[in-house]
Amino acid sequence: MPVYxxxxxxxxxxxxxxxxxTLFEWKPEKSFRRxxxxxNIVKENPIRDIFFHRDKGxxxxxxxxxxxxxxxxxxxxxxxxxxxxxxxEYVDLKFNExxxxxxxxxxxxxxxxxxxxxxxxxxxxxxxxxxxxxVKRIHxxxxxxxxxxxxxxxxxxIENAESYPVPIVYSHQGHAILCFIDKNFQHRGVELxxxxx
Length: 197
Ligand SMILES: [Zn+2]
Prior knowledge:
Strand content: 25-35%
Mean pLDDT: 94
Helix content: 10-25%
Order of helices and strands: EEHEEEHHHEEHEEE
Strand order of the largest sheet: 2-1-5-4-3
Number of strands: 10
CATH class of the largest domain: Alpha Beta
Largest sheet: 5 strands, antiparallel
Number of domains: 2
Oligomer: single chain
Low-confidence stretches: none
Shape: elongated
Distance between the termini: 31 Å
Number of helices: 5
Bound molecules: zinc ion
């Protein structure tokens, strides 16, 4: 069963930071793990408005720098990157709906507790993630494995595309397939691609 509806069970943390410190962090109940090293590495990347992925073996990281904030999520390798991107996009939307971040940060010595109210919002996002309609599930065939795979794509990625069909690479157990998705979220072909890097 692909991870989607119960995504909360597969998340290690969600962090909202600025350049200097954490504004808000969600972790599963009873988790005392710290992710400072990962967050320091994330902060070293100055590029804005592009999602970055890191595969740490036992954990996937997805992060993006937007305006003056950096959003990071850590999750089980079972969760597809597109789901985590959709999650962070929605967290960004809700965080900025709730707080005028640039004004708050301009105070200088504000209390970090000011963002505690976001905990309830975050819990609701995680709990209701599958009902937010942020993601589409498409079935594609992996010709290497000869099986049909669920491919999750975030709707924003298709809807904001400049042309169609939109290519997306699905990295599947050491090989990769290139899938073309049209604007109705139908796949229009799948190719095996070579990988380097
Ligand atoms: Zn495969």
